[in-house]
Here is the input.
Amino acid sequence: MNVRTLATVAAVAVAVVGCGKRGDPLPPLRRSPLPVADLRLAQRGTELVVTFTTPRTTVSGLKLGLMEVELVHRLGAGPFDEQSVRKTLKAAPGEALGERLPLPPPGTLVRYKAIVRADGQLSPEAAPPPFVTVAPPEPPKGVVAEVVATGLRLRFTPAPLPTPTPSPSPTASPTAGVTPTAPAAPAVGATPTAMASPTASPAPTETPASTASPTPAVPTAPPAADASPSASPAVAPTPTPAPTPPTAGTHVYRRPADGAYGAPLTTDPIADAVYEDTVVALEERVCYELRTVVSTSPLVESAATGEVCLVRRDIVPPSAPRGLTALEREGGIDLEWSTAPDADVVAYRVYRTASGGAPQRVAEVAETRYRDQALPDGARVLVYQVAAVDKAGNEGPLGDGVSARRP
Here is the structure.
């Protein structure tokens, strides 16, 4: 083996050894699950409703399997874990879950949290802001549903909104050992009290100018270093912005005939006493329930009204046919007209008026022509009109009349 061959073998050996070099160790993947998402606490009628969605992955992005969700709530002030109520649910990844609790008396502070346990690992706690219960509002009354040309219409009498009353603040009398997780939620409809701001020094009183000859202005010397702080001009405090009042009104809920109620049909509560639903398909049966809303954040609603159900029907009649002509033939009168512009027209009704009487229907045909052979006795001049009929059975208005003489 010559020198060149030995050098080549040595270089290959060095390269092979270099390829096997171990890199820096990677940090271990974090296997703790993510917390539940969209954890919300709401008051609906005489219940507290909790909703949330379970996570799908760990904090490192690993997919989760079946898990347990521990739900903990505490009524009133005091250390959270003392006198708390715990409940565990088994859940799948990405599952929408919740629970319903009896509504405690108005003014009760409610605190809540949820923890996910998967493969022996715990998620961070998820907790909505503390909630203060209020007296349940009254639901709307006199709900009436009707079919209109554009869809379905609901008419109702909105419930009177409760008079705003101040609510006890959960932080007013702190208990030793309590670490508040979030500022307390004010009572719904209450006007939050603005934070006390420092009293501004009174503005200096201006001296009226003399009517005598003006005295030249003398420059004011800067204050001495040891001057009293009260001599400095007062700084006006920054005004506290006025709180936004809670959104109030009525929520409308809809379900299909074989389904369940979901979210309200409008993002904001309805302020009027009427609502039109224009997205229901023809011949579809749906049901509605309404709830009074006194706050949307947090959500506070009344109990639901009684359910009203109906089917959307087509009640819009087709347009009148045009271009009607009448030709006297031996043995009868031939009528022809143009097709009505509506796509759902299935038939035409022919009307005849004799001797100044009322129009009488003489035929219903699917085509745009008709021969009238059963002419009335004694009438010399006849007037014909045609109306279109759609597949829902709606008859449109009569078209323009045309006269014909009896042959």
